[in-house]
Predict the structure of Na+/H+ antiporter.
Amino acid sequence: MEQIILSLAIVMLLGVLCIKCFSKLGVPAFLGFLLIGILLGPYATNILNIEFMGLTQEIATMAMVILLIRAGLGLSRDSLRKVGRVAVEMSCIPSVFEGLLVMIVGHYFLGISFIESGMLGFILAAVSPAILVPRMLNLIDKGLGTKKGIPEILLTGSSADDVVAITIFSVFLGMYTGGNINIVWSIASIPISLILGVLTGFVTGLILLYAFRRWDFSDIEKLFVTLATGILLNSLGEALQGRIPLAGLVGVMVIGFLLLDRMPKVALGLSNRYSNLWIVAEIVIFVLLGAQLELPLLIETPEGLFAPVIIVGIFVICMGLIARFGGVFMALAGSGLNNKEKIFCMTSYIPKANVQATIGAVPLAAGVASGELILAISAISIIFTAPLGALLIDFFNDKLLTKDEDLDNSKSIEVPTN
């Protein structure tokens, strides 16, 4: 336990120093966090405690809960009503396009079976909430693209996008391992899990609203209660996996949405506190992601490949991104967005990070023949797309999106009079 605490202390200290240095350079701080992880990890100095690194999945789950509650606290009813259909299409079409093309390209260029490349395709098909959510909330605060609901489209679409990608990945994994997989039911479970996630989050949110009105909670107590509730809701979804499809993380976002809709003053206070909490979560999760990147494997040239893994991996990833761009363009057809805004949406769907780190090693653990290769390309996708996507979003947001001049940026939450 002492070694875990020591590792956490080192990570937090270096992370804060990294924020100070990178902010002066105008570079996203998470790039420094990744670098810290690589340097402290087992493939460099091996300073981080192995038990601390073993907590990556649990910490990633908590970070996702923090992110999605923040996302919900930034979604108003009017904005969701405006982007409903488009957000649904953005949640499935781009990821399916990307996953299927990677499946085809992976089969021919990596020399693996269609089932194995299907697993790779839908690992890569999940967009990163850790990169996307904070930036979209920042756009909402600035009033960039809000008139057409662009940040809201990307927030809601990306949260469900991960559910779609992970579900289809599990289908391919079950097919490979010989599990009793009902493909029709697996595909049908995607909308069912989303609907049940929304309903569960709505009921849970109503209970929290009652509690906050019935008893006097301090702001910090509300933070702990909502965070614990979000973690429990996500755990419920995981516990019911294989029996009842329930997208717990979607329910987590609904809790935030309901708080904003019914108790906007409370939501504003919570949003500020979750923003501060995310600073800690972001440092830890990205350092742990960096520590898990197996760098020696990336420069190897396994038998059957025409170039080192990193070269072939980037090629496969780029092919998938091209398909994703096509999916985004199709999903946005009839949305009223102009070409500049569509291009921004495409760039926003580039980054990959926490989902790939969480499930990238699953095929290897399940005994898939190409599991090591799949893990390596998952790592490459983080190194390549997370910085690229973040930099493109930050650079182009005010160049491709229109500012809503009617929005009061400093007080964007309206308190209902009734």
Notes: The chain has 18 helices and no strands. Confidence is low (pLDDT under 50) at residues 409-418. Residues 77-110 form the longest helix (34 residues). The two ends are 52 Å apart (CA to CA).
